[in-house]
């Protein structure tokens, strides 16, 4: 037996086995974790994680709904150890959780909804490259360690600190495998446009984390189109689906273009705002495609000024305005982009990674402390 | 709702059966573990007006009981 800290403990220390299999059994028995094996969060391992934390370990950076547990660096570090994070990843984990503490994110709604959404963590900037967060082949998973463990650390924190247990705090009807881990970097090197971080108002040399309450990616296969209009027509056809929350919530759908699709689109002279404008104008569904009940009981009631007396050939957009589309470039070679449907009653949040003196972080090593 | 209850306003929350556990957990997290909960059968969405009226009747009976308990 060894002294081990466990995620949702009230900052007390729990005696638990640090043998991998025994710790796995212990977590299962006590309701910690996501069902996968964990690294036992011993004091020594948590201390190593906190070497990359420049904040007071007992001062909450946010509270995690639905049980409103205090997310202190100490508790987050225990979850990051359990998830398999290298200590260098810890500032990104912290930043993602801090972003979810913004009221606009509506963490309670995201955690407790019946909808299968979960935080998609998009990392931009030089530190994404320094940490080798995958933005290329199979970037949405599984692996490498950076993507897998950063995403998992955030999700374990939501479970263990926030009490998002199935049927008791997380009411997702069936959920999504993305709830295990969902972290990606934008492939800025192969994007013909400014990265998401710059679009959201941050300097081009900043490292940012964007959190979006999202479903898993839905593939868009287009091997034939040779123009922006062709590829975007295929994407618009994939986005315009009646069962998506984006059809009746004013949220921000995500389009993850593969580099080859992005190059073809940009080669036609399209800017990123042209892409958004095209999708907003063309990813639309006529009212007649929705069930009569959805038209009468939801769309006409929720948007009376738009659909109250509208004819059934009226088109329903998938976002309120073109700017609401989030367009990023992700992936390696091949012609598969992705539409990522999102939640609703929620706005994505982007934060820049800063040192405790308020300056933008240039390297993750700036967070290394002398503990 | 917890905040209203804390301020002395008689409050009750309606939830359907599968949401009872999360409602209890939320009441505790909000500092009012004994917040009155009115429990109705599930589902409410995707049902006709007759079912909605039936659910309202079930909720109404519990609401009256909560008010009676408050007057004791």
Question: Can you walk through the features of this model?
Answer:
The complex is a heterodimer of chains A (371) and B (72). Helix content of chain A is 32%, strand content 15%. Chain A has helices spanning 20-30, 43-50, 73-83, 90-100, 107-112, 126-130, 145-160, 196-199, 228-239, 259-267, 272-282, 292-302, 304-307, and strands at 2-4, 14-16, 62-64, 69-71, 118-124, 183-185, 208-214, 218-221, 254-257, 284-286, 315-317, 326-329, 336-340, 349-352. Chain A is globular. The two termini of chain A are 26 Å apart. With 72 residues, chain B is mainly alpha-helical. Chain B has one domain. Chain B has helices at 2-6, 20-29, 49-71, and strands at residues 13-16, 37-40. In chain B, strands 1-2 form a two-stranded parallel sheet. Chain B has three helices and two strands; from the N terminus they run αβαβα. The radius of gyration of chain B is 13 Å and the shape is globular. Chains A and B meet through loops of A and α2 of B.
Query: Structural class of chain A, please?
Result: alpha+beta
- Count the E strands of chain A: 14
Given as residue ranges, the uncertain stretches of chain A (5+ residues, pLDDT < 50) are none
Helix amount of chain B, in percent? 40-55%
Amount of beta strand of chain A: 15-25%
- Note the main sheet of chain A: 4 strands, mixed
Low-confidence stretches of chain B: none
Overall 3D form of chain A: globular
What order do the strands of the largest sheet of chain B run in, or round the barrel if closed?
A: 1-2
